Amino acid sequence: MIKFIKKELEIEESLKQRIMIICDFCNTTPTIINGSIRKIDKTNLTYIEPHRIIIKDNLYLAFNYSNEIYIQNLGKKIKLSELENYIKKLIP
Description:
Elements: E1 4-8, H1 13-25, E2 31-33, E3 36-40, E4 46-49, E5 51-55, E6 58-62, E7 68-71, E8 77-79, H2 83-90
Antiparallel strand pairs: 1-3, 2-5, 3-4, 5-6, 6-7, 7-8
């Protein structure tokens, strides 16, 4: 039987602070769900699940120590410094 091991990863404090500041400028509050490491026991297969950030009903994915943030899935990314403008374009 395959055994999966899951360990939660805390979001890096500086990443969390940057997201909170960006959301303050956009007059919104994000919901942050910590990512995790998923490993198949007795193998070298490991998957890092990104942190999920929900802002204005939109999903963003982020990894610790990265300057990029992903929109909806890992197929589209922007620089974290561009997130404020991206959110403001979504707000009517």
